[in-house]
Specification:
201 residues; 47% strand; elongated
């Protein structure tokens, strides 16, 4: 039963880098930290950032175990952001929810391109007690689809990419900031008009 519960987390691994159990890329090695790219992001890279910034991926996943298809189940993954680190390596800040756990972790993934279409790739990442996993997830046109595989089982996942609703406090903060900016702009304009008027006298 415990193994099946853990297997239910594996689709999140495909999108969130097999981190339900916080697996590092190597023993004692921290995930690469995002750095400012030497050159501006390419147009297709900018679209990827916009697509996954504050996004929720909602869909279905299906387990394949011992060559047999399992039942479909609902899926949902939250991604706060994605940043380019170096080369093909990007850092996905993903929210992982399973059981009584609710954590946000920085996850290193590789991004490969099929023309203008990004494919998130994880290869031979280990989960303690479950084995080594590989995943490929393609993102295009507001949709995602992909596969993941491990020892004795695999699976499919697909769905839509939506923007997460802003939390009430975040929305209130944004409205307050916009109001302040508008007020500052108005004060600046009034000051400029007053100065111009004084110069004409």
């Amino acid at each position: 039963m415990r193994n099946r519960t853990l297997l239910a987390c594996v689709p999140a691994v495909a999108l969130s880098a097999l981190v339900a159990l916080r697996v590092p890329s190597a023993a004692g090695e921290d995930p690469p930290k995002p750095v400012v790219p030497a050159a501006p992001l390419e147009p297709r890279e900018k679209k990827l950032v916009e697509m996954l910034e504050n996004a929720v991926l909602k869909g279905r996943w299906r387990l394949v175990e011992d060559g047999k298809l399992g039942a479909e189940a609902d899926d949902s993954y939250s991604i706060q952001s994605i940043e380019k680190a170096r080369g093909a390596v990007w850092i996905v800040k993903a929210r992982i929810q399973y059981g009584d756990k609710d954590i946000t972790v920085p996850v290193p993934v590789e991004v490969h391109w099929a023309g203008d279409t990004p494919v998130l790739a994880i290869t031979d990442k280990g989960i303690p007690g479950l084995g080594t996993y590989t995943a490929r997830v393609l993102l295009h046109g507001g949709h995602y689809t992909g596969t993941w595989s491990g020892p004795g089982h695999a699976g499919f996942l697909s769905g839509v990419i939506e923007k997460a609703a802003a939390a009430p406090e975040a929305k209130e903060k944004q409205e307050k900031q916009e109001k302040q900016e508008k007020q500052e702009k108005q004060e600046k304009q009034e000051k400029q008009e007053k100065q111009e008027k004084q110069e004409k006298q």
